[in-house]
Amino acid sequence: MSDVVAPDKGRHGRGDKGVANRIVVLSGGVGGARLVDGLAAILPDWALTAIINTGDDFIHWGLTICPDLDTVMYTLAGLADPDRGWGLRGETFRALAMMQRYRGPSWFGLGDGDLATHLVRSQALARGESLSDITARLCRDLGVQQRILPMADQPHPTAVDTAQRGTLLFQEWFVRERCRPVLRGIHLGGTSEPAPGVLPAIDEARFVIVAPSNPYVSIDPIMSLDGVRDAVAAKKVVAVSPIVAGKAVKGPLADMIRQIGGQEPSAGAIAGHYGALLDGIVVERGDEGIIPGLPTLATDTIMKNREDRMGLAGRVLAFGESLL
Amino acid sequence: MSDVVAPDKGRHGRGDKGVANRIVVLSGGVGGARLVDGLAAILPDWALTAIINTGDDFIHWGLTICPDLDTVMYTLAGLADPDRGWGLRGETFRALAMMQRYRGPSWFGLGDGDLATHLVRSQALARGESLSDITARLCRDLGVQQRILPMADQPHPTAVDTAQRGTLLFQEWFVRERCRPVLRGIHLGGTSEPAPGVLPAIDEARFVIVAPSNPYVSIDPIMSLDGVRDAVAAKKVVAVSPIVAGKAVKGPLADMIRQIGGQEPSAGAIAGHYGALLDGIVVERGDEGIIPGLPTLATDTIMKNREDRMGLAGRVLAFGESLL
């Protein structure tokens, strides 16, 4: 695949650790993690940096939970539950059952093995370590060789305004309330400072891929950090549409486009949301007709297995190259 | 059994919540928990107060662990592992396995269900709740009706001086080092203030039972708190010997008596350790010959099943009554 990443540059051979053929992918959880996994299977380890949304992070059971970071980490480590997409494969939920006996909050499905991740992270944060450093260490221990960066080291909580329940943290709305309260708006709060590695990684990127994640609550939080949108705008950017045939592959995105974006969900709505930031978009076959005036690759975008992930990743990389 | 507890006082019938026939038991973990369980099965719920050693408590994985409190609580709730004596029945250890991948400390066997207890407790402590209040709430949620009091609300860590490893926290020596470093001394540190309920409970007790726990590291820490020894001394006190035929029923007590007490382990050494505090001692049949000058009940003291626990508890209660 290094041929595709740098097809016309003989100096970028396998093992070349120069910066010119690094790829940055911006991602949320499950859907994005699958594309990141495909990219990781194709690119040399050093060539991939994933910048992950931490706007969904929250404190639960006294522990700092980073759903998207963990989903990407577990996916790359080969530990993710293949059906749910989140959490660990073969996970058990004994702590959760006991927590219910204690009448503690049980709406978020923290698994037993998963708890170790949150315990290690929470202890390290309490010691003053940065989320970036902690994430690097967790990844190393799980054998993940690619670079996974939290978008920010400080909290940047995403909240939603709802018609029925007032303001909720994203996970409260998404998991506890099962996306039922109608959205009126989204607030991206907290720090405005990206994690130290974020802007340099984007600056060094050959191009930037926006994973098929939720634009409002997975990608916008990353873009909202100081300097990120400008750094991304200075690069060629390819997005993969998370909307296929008018529906979200996963999660509440279709309703969010209606309630927040005020339009019908479509790949075109995704392109419109990112606007001038995009140099190209990858959509499902059949969705290309609704994207005006933007280089578009229409292909198979549903990732059911490893081969799907690698196939889409390879096509996205080649499409990105073609735009340079 | 209320007949035995208050044999000569007609006004102390079943359902009478007067204080005159309350029993206090001082206890550590596994062995003590079994006697407490037997007492709980015989006495009305309101009549039993167990004051539990917290000198072994420590911070692990960022959580406050109270091994003896939890052992007693799980035992009374019918949730304790019947073979190990500690931890939950049918427990799993997935978090521990994952913690090993993260190279975190794995020498203390925190189970998955057990973690919920430590998470709830640690969060409540962080909110400023007292260990006494938290323990009462955990017990209530697990259906434990008896009163379980931590000996102290503030930390009172027991440390051991060893020949090979210097000073260690008790659990480090007991579990991590498997009692191998030779003991040179024991330090009872931290707070000197008993939990608010402790002295009133002893003051109100009809008599005090010292469970078959380790005198050095389970009972002495309780006795060392301000006012406890005097309060206990003002009552009739019956101890159950944790030494049977020269050996500890469980744990490192026999070696501790040699290394710290400078004598051979025996029921007599236990009686000698408590000294004038005791009004009577319960020992295994055959051990009574080595107790000079103290009312002694020689009986079956090994508790292998619920019937053993109830049988011993009943005999201890009756023996205590006989000393009043």
Please specify the SSE layout and strand pairing.
The structure is a homodimer of 324-residue chains.
Chain A: H1 2-5, E1 22-27, H2 30-42, E2 48-52, E3 58-60, E4 63-65, H3 67-76, H4 94-101, H5 112-126, H6 131-141, E5 147-150, E6 158-162, E7 166-169, H7 170-176, E8 183-188, H8 198-204, E9 205-210, H9 215-223, H10 228-233, E10 237-240, E11 243-244, E12 247-248, H11 253-261, H12 267-274, E13 280-284, E14 296-299, H13 306-323
Parallel strand pairs in A: 1-2, 1-9, 2-5, 9-10, 10-13, 13-14
Antiparallel strand pairs in A: 3-4, 6-7, 6-8, 11-12
Helix pairs in contact in A: 2-3, 2-13, 5-6
User: Which series of helices and strands of chain A comes N to C?
Assistant: HEHEEEHHHHEEEHEHEHHEEEHHEEH
At the fold tier of CATH, the topology name of chain A is Rossmann fold
Largest sheet of chain A: 7 strands, parallel
Tell me roughly what share of residues is in helical segments of chain A: 25-40%
Query: Per the principal axes of the C-alpha atoms, what is the gross shape of chain A?
Result: globular
Low-confidence stretches of chain A: 1-16
Structural class of chain A, by secondary structure, is alpha/beta
Mean pLDDT of chain A: 92
